[in-house]
Amino acid sequence: MLDVIYDSQFTEHTTGDDHPERPARLAAVIEGLTAGGCPPARYQLPTIVDRAALARVHDESYVALVERVCEKLPDYFVAELPTGDATVGHDSFRIALLAAGAAVDAARRARADRPVFALVRPPGHHAEPARGMGFCLLNNVAVAAQSARANTGATLIVDFDYHHGNGTQAWVERALSDGGAPLGFISTHAYPAYPGTGAFSESHTADGGFMIDIPLDLSTPTHDFIGAWSMLLPPLAAKLRPSTIVVSTGFDFLEGDPIAGLPVGIEAVDALCGLLGETAAAYGAGLAFVLEGGYSLPNLHASARTLARSFGEGAGRVHVPSGHMPHNPQLRGMIAEVLSWL
Fold it and tell me: How far apart are CA 332 and CA 78, in angstroms?
């Protein structure tokens, strides 16, 4: 059974006319979840993130900057954060606090047999500890992961968004040496693409966990995308043995996205759900999904429907793909090298 955390206030984050990160995205997801058997009547409300939890990820001076910029804006006006390409309105800071709180709630409530989906905006994985960018203000997934580490132990972050989660990675680099519970980060992302980070050379293991970047060629097909995850997720999870898995759930990797998109079909979402569900079950780990990118409304609808069906009453029918190496030789080489580190 899939639980959903949502508040209609997320539609009030103002980005301006014709902005791709718009409230209609949430409506498309809700329609897809409903079609998959998860209607809004079952949704739960989020809580505002605790400021102490936020301070464990973001510099207080940056948080104060976002709050100040938003508070000074008149209603119905938008502006760009001085740190980068993130558009805000008067209420955006308050809503971002609620989005981060929803992610923390999802990680706290999630169980292996009862995943939780934080249906939020603004997204978060580009937000660095002291910099908002890429439509992101606060790093929802990083805040949730840090909270999970403190409360349940080893935490795995999975990010399959088209764009590299540079903000999450920046926090993970800090966290791997903080003496806390083990932490792992696995990301596939288009490369070269915004924000320009996430080269394979940035991957490494550490005493406290690992950070694995798998950059994908812009022509990466469905077979290779699924193959990369089927070969990497099981052994990396076995190394970490997570108590919580937090997923940066960006559906802009799918073919047809208006600002991103690889030649990857919707069946990849089914495969990801199968792999993540199997991994959570293997370690009794809570499985929390947090919405990131995805700007095609039909893709969001289809992905949400798949997510609801995958973890609904018919979850036993979900196909878990067997491990298979991609065809692309560069991708095969990266996978082989990562496996040699384990």
Answer: 45
Catalytic residue among 126, 164, 189, 301: 126
CATH number at residue 141: 3.40.800.20
d(CA 98, CA 75) in angstroms, rounded, equals: 19
Q: Which domain holds residue 135?
A: 3-341
For 159, phi then psi, to 5°, come to: -135, 110
Q: Is 296 exposed, middle or buried (0-12, 13-18, 19+ CB in 10 A)?
A: buried
pLDDT at 99: 98
Burial label, 74 (beta-carbon count in 10 A; 0-12, 13-18, 19+): exposed
Tally of domains in the chain: 1
Question: What DSSP character marks residue 128?
Answer: B
Angle, helix 24-35 to helix 297-310, in steps of 10 degrees? 40
**Annotation marks residue 126 as catalytic:** yes
pLDDT digits (tens, 9 = 90+) for 261-305: 999 999 999 999 999 999 999 999 999 999 999 999 999 999 999
Given this model, what pLDDT does residue 320 score? Answer: 81
pLDDT < 70 regions, the chain: 314-318
Phi, psi (deg, nearest 5) at residue 246: -115, 125
